Amino acid sequence: MKPVLGYFKLRGWAGPIRLLLAYLEVDYEERLYELPTTVREKNSTSSQCASSSAVLADWCQEKFSLGLPFPNLPYWIEGQIKLSETKAILKHISRTRAPTLLGSSVEDKAKLNVLEEVLWDMWNSLCQVCLRHDDDTLGKFLTDAKYKLNLLSDNFTGLWAIGSNVTYVDFLLYEVLYHYKLFYEMLSQPFPTLQSFLSRFESIPSIQKYMHSQRFINGPCFSNKFKSKL
């Protein structure tokens, strides 16, 4: 059986995983769940699903029947391997199909571990500001984002995230930078090194093929309810 990737019908936290799968040309199935609604689901056994706020529709019906140790989206099911969480899935796919994507030395692995956490924090911050979009949240975000983008640019010294070879973090880096560019054109600063990375990544043949396929989900990036264009 083909492995299965499960996520909502949007780009979101599954974006880097889909890009990695396209890069490696992995044959897999995708279980796409409907986006959250505001309908109350009274008969659910999950407190998340029973809430009077957003109901996760068909995901709630399957959430606890898939055998996932920590049920969440995105998930990856491959035989007896059942994983949730974006970073765990990225590293598992890399480890089982292209171990060099995890870094070739202890030093590389250390750099990747730090960078993935920095990028994840940046992505979460953007998600929050898109959801709230109040002046205080936006002001703090802009200050922090410019600082983080400058650090990324200053530490970007090769073709890819940590040098001359593609790693699993490049797929996360691309998604984060794409979202930042979409939100505020990279916060109105040039960052030519980061812009070049985006163009270089999109020029990878297997990525280019995927982005022009019917399978590619260009948006929404997070949710239709966000007040920004994400």
Write the layout of secondary structure elements.
Layout: E1 4-8, H1 15-24, E2 29-33, H2 47-50, H3 57-62, E3 75-78, E4 81-84, H4 86-97, H5 106-132, H6 135-155, H7 168-184, H8 192-202, H9 205-211
Parallel strand pairs: 1-2
Antiparallel strand pairs: 1-3, 3-4
Helix pairs in contact: 1-4, 1-7, 1-9, 5-6, 5-7, 7-8
Features:
single chain, 230 residues, alpha+beta, Glutaredoxin, 2 domains, 4-stranded mixed β-sheet, 9 helices, 8% strand
Brief characterization of the structure:
The protein has helices at 15-24, 47-50, 57-62, 86-97, 106-132, 135-155, 168-184, 192-202, 205-211, and strands at residues 4-8, 29-33, 75-78, 81-84.
Q: How would you explain this protein's 3D organization?
A:
This protein has 230 residues and is of the alpha+beta class. The protein folds into two domains: 4-99, Glutaredoxin (3-Layer(aba) Sandwich), CATH 3.40.30.10; 103-210, Glutathione S-transferase Yfyf (Class Pi), Chain A, domain 2 (Up-down Bundle), CATH 1.20.1050.10. It is built from nine helices and four strands, in the order E-H-E-H-H-E-E-H-H-H-H-H-H. The protein has helices spanning 15-24, 47-50, 57-62, 86-97, 106-132, 135-155, 168-184, 192-202, 205-211; strands at 4-8, 29-33, 75-78, 81-84. Strands 2-1-3-4 form a four-stranded mixed sheet. Residues 38-48 have low confidence and may be disordered.
Order of helices and strands: EHEHHEEHHHHHH
Number of helices: 9
- Report the β-strand fraction as a percent range: 5-15%
Radius of gyration: 18 Å
Task: Give the distance, in angstroms, between the N- and C-terminal Cα atoms.
Answer: 34 Å
Mean pLDDT: 87
CATH class of the largest domain: Mainly Alpha
Spatial ordering of strands, largest sheet:
2-1-3-4
Total beta strand runs: 4
Report the structural category. alpha+beta
Low-confidence sequence ranges: 38-48
Large-scale geometry: globular
Task: Give the proportion of residues in helices.
Answer: 40-55%
What is the CATH architecture descriptor of the largest domain? Up-down Bundle
Within the CATH hierarchy, at the fold level, what is the topology of the largest domain? Glutathione S-transferase Yfyf (Class Pi), Chain A, domain 2
Describe the largest sheet.
Answer: 4 strands, mixed
- Tally of domains: 2
